[in-house]
């Protein structure tokens, strides 16, 4: 009887399991290689391009200050940036195209910070705060435009008369033989644009006793400068008047006070910012008529006069403009 052939057990199943294990090992090895390569690449990048922690701090600080571009704002807000020459790493936002507020009507009208008598009259050409105690103005305020400064419509009147709207303003004869000029606060040279404006400038409510050489010299130079500035900057706002004190001497039958000094405060707009300057001049002859020597920030003039100038401006704008003095902006 023939013997049956015995079959060897099949190895297909074992081979299949081995292939699966080998495939999983290959995946793990490949993943480890990728991770090692990534770590090596990152270490090499950090070595070649180290990150400056201080520069990050600067950027964060600039974002807080609003000078760094932030995705939370529209792109065009930072479209016009310029470089700060003192630090080329920090971008500086350029000035806006216009001042960020509407200029108040009659922004030139000041207010008294002391208890001083005043009667305010608004005319075609200027506003005047009249001091009945001393028979002179506390201040005169107006805007002088380039067109007005360049006009020759009306010639000089030279006819000083009492103010028809105010009782008790001086007669021109009160100045006779006093040794003082009838000094304009709002000058006739600024009023050539209107016959009425010229006439109003000769009301004695707009006049103060002024040293002759001052009136014809440095004060006249300053008045001429105001017209130059008005033409150059389209307009200037002017507040001018005497520095009033309790120890003033007097002239004439009506007892006109003789100021020890005079002030002239000016402001113009560049379209983006406001520039201001003040001048305080003693009531005397000046051999040196260099106006730059007598220019000061408006804040200083406020302390000397007791008058709050341009108070209708937003506080931040007023504070900045009145505390700074940019003589080059005024050609001084």
From TrEMBL:
Keyword vocabulary terms for this entry: Endonuclease, Hydrolase, Magnesium, Membrane, Metal-binding, Nuclease, Transmembrane, Transmembrane helix
Enzyme class, UniProt record, top EC level: hydrolase
Region called Disordered, residue ranges: 63-103, 151-179
CDD domains: NUC
Cofactor requirements of the protein: Mg(2+)
Signal sequence, renumbered to the chain: none
SUPFAM superfamilies for the chain: His-Me finger endonucleases
Membrane-spanning residues: 20-45
Ranges annotated as biased composition (Basic and acidic residues): 170-179
GO molecular function, one term: endonuclease activity
Active site: 184 (proton acceptor)
Gene3D superfamilies per the UniProt record, alphabetical: Extracellular Endonuclease, subunit A
The DNA/RNA non-specific endonuclease/pyrophosphatase/phosphodiesterase domain, residue ranges: 122-316
Coiled-coil regions listed: none
Positions that bind Mg(2+): 215
Residue span, ENPP1-3/EXOG-like endonuclease/phosphodiesterase domain: 123-316
EC code(s) of this entry: 3.1.30.-
PANTHER family, per the entry: ENDONUCLEASE G, MITOCHONDRIAL (PTHR13966:SF5), ENDONUCLEASE RELATED (PTHR13966)
Family, per entry: Belongs to the DNA/RNA non-specific endonuclease family.
Protein name, UniProt field: Endonuclease
């Amino acid at each position: 009887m023939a013997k049956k052939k015995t079959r060897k057990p099949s190895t297909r199943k074992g081979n299949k399991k081995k292939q699966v294990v080998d495939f999983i090992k290959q995946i793990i090895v490949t993943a480890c290689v990728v991770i090692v390569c990534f770590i090596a690449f990152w270490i090499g990048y950090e070595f070649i391009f180290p990150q400056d922690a201080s520069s990050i701090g600067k950027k964060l600080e600039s974002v807080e200050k609003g000078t760094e571009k932030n995705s939370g704002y529209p792109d065009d807000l930072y479209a016009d940036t310029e470089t700060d020459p003192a630090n080329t790493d920090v971008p500086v936002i350029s000035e806006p195209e216009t001042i960020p507020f509407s200029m108040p009507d009659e922004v030139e009208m000041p207010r008294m910070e002391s208890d001083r008598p005043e009667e305010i009259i608004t005319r075609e050409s200027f506003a005047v705060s009249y001091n009945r105690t001393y028979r002179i103005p506390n201040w005169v305020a107006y805007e002088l435009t380039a067109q007005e400064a360049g006009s020759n419509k009306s010639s000089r009147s030279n006819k000083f008369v009492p103010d028809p709207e105010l009782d008790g303003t001086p007669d021109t004869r009160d100045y006779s033989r006093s040794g003082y000029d009838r000094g304009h606060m709002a000058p006739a040279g600024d009023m050539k644009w209107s016959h009425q404006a010229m006439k109003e400038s000769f009301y004695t409510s707009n006049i103060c006793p002024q040293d002759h050489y001052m009136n014809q010299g440095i004060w006249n130079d300053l008045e001429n400068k105001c017209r130059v500035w008005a033409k150059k900057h389209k307009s200037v706002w002017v507040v001018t008047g005497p520095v009033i004190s309790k120890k003033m001497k007097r002239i004439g039958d009506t007892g006109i006070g003789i100021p020890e000094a005079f002030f002239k405060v000016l402001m113009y707009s560049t379209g983006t910012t406001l520039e201001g300057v003040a001048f305080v001049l003693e009531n005397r002859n000046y051999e040196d008529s260099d106006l730059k020597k007598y220019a000061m920030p408006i804040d200083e003039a406020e302390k000397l006069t007791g008058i709050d100038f341009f108070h209708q401006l937003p506080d931040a704008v007023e504070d900045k403009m009145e505390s700074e003095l940019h003589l080059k902006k005024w050609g001084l």
